[in-house]
Design a protein that fits this description.
Number of domains: 2
Number of helices: 8
Number of strands: 17
Order of helices and strands: EEHEEEHHEEHEHEEEEHEHEEEHE
CATH class of the largest domain: Alpha Beta
Radius of gyration: 19 Å
CATH topology of the largest domain: D-amino Acid Aminotransferase, Chain A, domain 2
Length: 309
């Protein structure tokens, strides 16, 4: 069995083309992206399979990584191919079988002022052991609160870019939910339609059909969301991508989050209202099982989504 890094200090990371110790990866406190939230990031998972460690949808994540940088006019000194290779190198260097991977592009300038166009950038990639994002909630389900804060839209910030600053919106909504005793938040769009969780896309089940908010709700078009849609269609489920009203959540048979970190997590209560019978439903469980089969390399139809380390 492979050994894994026992602590973050023992962890190996990739910084600007070199594998180094995590404790040696240092940047100045005045780094622009720390001051102003001007970083770009991705989140990927790797899973232990019978053929060894496999990174899930590496190509798609790194494509979005580069697209996010382009949207924000951030120059990147590496090609997409070089960064895909770097992700694999980091997982190998840490001898990890299952892990979460965080690539990050940031301005390494230390100027005071929001101007960053043309500024020098660095790329950092880390890989670390990572379990269920919601702990026991992944199986039992979580309780959510619809936030009084609205989801940012493309007239405010580019929602299709996975930028650090965008997630201040999620943080304040999540804080509101947690302070009210809930596990997570649900954000509505400016128009009042269901958008997404703090860092997850959403699905609801009605009469055995899947419904998920579409791009008009200014959601991040998640890689895991796309995976669930394709897996669901492969087993004959009807999938609707459309505007979704919040009362549809209350009356849904099932609701679940999906995302790289969250994987598939049932939502069993929203604003104090039990969803369905208040327990994870059969469609959610079916899709969770199918998703696990795919990421574990047990589904030949989607094996091209795996990059073996």
């Amino acid at each position: 069995m492979k050994r894994r890094a026992s602590s973050k200090n023992a962890m190996k990371v990739w910084l600007d083309g070199k594998i180094i110790n995590y404790k040696d990866a240092k940047v100045p406190i005045l780094t622009h992206s720390l001051q102003y939230g001007s970083g770009i990031f991705e989140g990927l998972r790797a899973y232990r399979t019978e053929k060894g460690t496999a990174i899930f949808r590496l190509d798609d994540h790194m494509k979005r990584f580069m697209q996010s940088a382009k949207i924000y006019s951030m120059g990147v000194n590496y090609t997409e191919k070089e960064l895909r290779k770097a992700v694999v190198e980091v997982v190998r260097a840490n001898k990890l079988e299952s892990c979460y991977i965080r690539p990050f592009i940031f301005y390494n300038t230390t100027n005071i002022g929001v101007g960053a166009f043309g500024g020098a950038t660095s790329v950092f990639i880390a890989a670390l052991p990572f379990g269920a994002y919601y702990g026991a909630g992944k199986e039992k389900g979580i309780r959510c609160k619809i936030s009084s804060w609205r989801r940012i839209n493309s007239s405010i910030l580019p929602v299709e870019a996975k930028a650090s600053g965008n997630y201040i919106n999620s943080i304040i909504a999540n804080n509101e939910a947690k302070s009210s005793g809930f596990d997570e938040t649900i954000l509505l769009s400016i128009e009042g339609h269901v958008a997404e969780g703090a860092a997850e896309n959403m699905f609801l089940v009605r009469s055995s059909s899947l419904i998920t908010p579409d791009a008009s709700a200014d959601i991040l078009m998640g890689v895991t969301r796309d995976s669930i849609i394709k897996i669901a269609q492969s087993i004959g489920l009807i999938v609707q991508e459309r505007e979704t009203h919040k009362e549809e959540l209350y009356s849904a048979d099932e609701v679940f989050f999906c995302g790289t970190a969250a994987e598939i997590t049932p939502v069993v209560n929203i604003d104090g209202i039990s969803i369905g019978n208040g327990r994870p439903g059969p469609i959610t469980k079916l899709l969770s099982d199918k998703y696990t089969e795919v990421v574990m390399g047990k589904n030949k139809e989607f094996e091209d989504w795996l990059t073996y380390v």
